[in-house]
């Protein structure tokens, strides 16, 4: 294989696999690199996992970049709005807290808000940390609107993401991509052609005799990982010693009661259950470890904890938590489940697809596929996967539950050094330090550590400099402003109806 000429650009991109990963990549590349010839190969005979119906706020950046109108998006995907995730029974049975997307209070004199709250609590303050958060107060009121300002204060506006129907989202992205020239080829791969010298993928032979070539390939073939794990032989790094779940049962059910503007994650004996409210139904799933329970028991647990009548038979999904050792190998880049899976606990799966695309664009190669570009991409993606992994481990490890073997083992497991350091710093004095590229903010780490029962032994001494009467006024004013702002928001269903969504009665 002759080396390509200096400066020769990649012109032909082939994406193997549709689903959220494939069509998200196709839509983004068609928007930002319209000169490319993009072909997506997928087969209607191969199903998609399609349970990722909850997102985090970063998806709004993608929609904004693609110039997607939010109301059109919500209507087209039967979507709803998400202020955060309520964790029920994680710290102990009967306990709940909301990991919301917004900030809590605001910093004062270079010290984070929670240090003032910790001092005030020690002095007898009865108000909880989350009473100072607009997202939490809106969630409690089942209210939502995209509030951009909170009076004239330094409080953060409403921070939100979406719930949506995964199948409708794929259709939405496909229509967007095909309108911008992406070509879809129906077919299943029979053979992957590779260059004998470099190992680069040269093309895909399809069942029935078709062939699709390309210069750069994006593997969105799901857990099968036909190109990255298969043809390129990239190893898979197993995270199951920390993230023990390996199975999920998913089922939709009818909607009941007010439409929650947040996801629920409800811990059970050997895993947990998600509830994701959409306009027309609720998405449910039970994530569990087959080493601690069986499918039959998990099935019973899921059906016993539905809020409405199931509208299908629960579907079983098997998985192994972990990631590829390298995400970009040769001229193949893995996205979505082909690149790894960290379970749906904090709704990061769709974000990791988006992040993979966002990191590819500035590192997009010319025809030489230069190794430094691959190495930097792999460094960035590995760091993001591993930092998210550690945040997920925190939920399982920091628990007071000892009622089942699953939870006892989670509490006793040895966690990664980085997570040990983060928890130790917080316990020692409420400090939060983590990598700059960490997806989760200080506010997220604060909420989950406190929510799971990790308590600081002290607070920053600068917080002691505020006179007691000013401290009381500082916190009280925030609660008043937050309560007033949340009280002025419409009900979640009311806002959805105002933008043309058809919420089920």
Report on the architecture of this protein.
The chain is an alpha+beta fold. Among the domains are: 12-48 and 165-239 and 322-369, 3-Layer(bba) Sandwich (FAD/NAD(P)-binding domain), CATH 3.50.50; 104-149 and 391-398 and 412-491, no CATH class. 34% of the residues lie in helices and 19% in strands. It has helices at residues 19-32, 59-65, 70-77, 113-122, 134-140, 166-179, 226-231, 295-304, 349-360, 371-397, 405-412, 417-429, 442-451, 468-487, 492-498, and strands at 12-16, 37-42, 80-82, 84-88, 96-100, 161-163, 183-186, 189-194, 201-206, 211-213, 216-219, 236-238, 247-253, 263-268, 271-277, 282-288, 315-318, 322-324, 328-329, 332-334, 340-341. The strands form 5 sheets. It has a 7-stranded mixed β-sheet with strand order 5-4-14-15-16-13-17. A 6-stranded mixed β-sheet has the order 7-2-1-11-20-19. A 3-stranded antiparallel β-sheet has the order 8-9-10, with no helix packed on it. Strand 19 and strand 20 (332-334) form a beta hairpin.
């Amino acid at each position: 294989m002759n080396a390509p000429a200096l400066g020769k650009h990649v012109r032909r991109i082939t994406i193997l696999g549709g689903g959220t990963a494939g069509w998200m990549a196709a839509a983004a590349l068609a928007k930002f690199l319209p000169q490319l010839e993009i072909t997506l190969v997928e087969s209607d005979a191969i199903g998609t996992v399609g349970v990722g119906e909850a997102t985090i706020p970063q998806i709004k950046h993608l929609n904004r970049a693609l110039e997607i109108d939010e109301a059109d998006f919500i209507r087209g995907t039967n979507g709803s709005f998400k202020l955060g995730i309520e964790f029920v029974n994680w710290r102990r049975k009967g306990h709940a807290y909301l990991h919301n997307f917004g900030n809590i209070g605001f910093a004062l004199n270079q010290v984070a808000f929670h240090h003032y709250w910790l001092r005030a609590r020690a002095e007898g303050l009865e108000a909880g940390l989350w009473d100072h958060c607009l997202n939490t107060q809106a969630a409690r009121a089942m209210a939502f609107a995209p509030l951009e300002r909170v009076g004239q204060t330094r409080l953060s506006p409403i921070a939100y993401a979406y719930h949506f129907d995964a199948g409708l989202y794929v259709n939405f992205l496909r229509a967007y991509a095909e309108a911008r020239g992406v070509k879809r080829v129906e077919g299943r791969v029979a053979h992957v052609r590779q260059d004998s010298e470099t190992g680069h993928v040269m093309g895909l032979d399809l069942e029935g005799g078709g062939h699709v070539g390309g210069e750069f390939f994006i593997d969105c073939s799901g857990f099968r990982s036909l190109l990255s794990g298969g043809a390129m032989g990239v190893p898979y790094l197993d995270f199951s010693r920390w993230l023990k779940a390996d199975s999920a049962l998913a089922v939709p059910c009818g909607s009941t009661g007010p439409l929650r503007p947040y996801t629920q994650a409800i811990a059970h004996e050997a895993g947990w259950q998600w509830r994701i409210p959409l306009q027309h139904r609720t998405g449910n799933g039970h994530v569990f470890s087959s080493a601690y329970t069986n499918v039959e028991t998990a099935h019973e647990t899921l059906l016993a904890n539905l809020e409405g009548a199931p509208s299908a038979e629960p579907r079983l999904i098997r998985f192994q938590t972990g990631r590829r050792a390298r995400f970009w190998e040769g001229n193949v880049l893995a996205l979505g489940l082909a690149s790894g899976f960290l379970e749906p606990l904090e709704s990061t799966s769709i974000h990791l697809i988006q992040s993979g695309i966002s990191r590819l664009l500035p590192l997009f190669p010319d025809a030489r596929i230069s190794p430094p570009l691959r190495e930097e991409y792999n460094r960035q993606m590995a760091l993001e996967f591993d930092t998210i992994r550690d945040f997920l481990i925190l939920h399982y490890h920091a628990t007071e539950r000892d009622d089942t073997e699953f939870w006892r083992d989670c509490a006793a497991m040895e966690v990664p050094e980085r997570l040990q350091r983060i928890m130790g710093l917080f316990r020692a004095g409420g400090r939060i330090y983590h990598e700059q590229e960490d997806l989760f903010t200080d506010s997220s780490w604060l909420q989950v550590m406190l929510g799971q029962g990790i308590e600081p032994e002290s607070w920053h001494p600068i917080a002691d400099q505020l006179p007691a009467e000013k401290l009381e006024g500082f916190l009280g004013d925030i609660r008043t402003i937050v309560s007033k702002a949340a009280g002025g928001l419409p009900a979640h269903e009311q806002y959805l109806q105002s933008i043309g969504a058809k919420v089920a009665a």
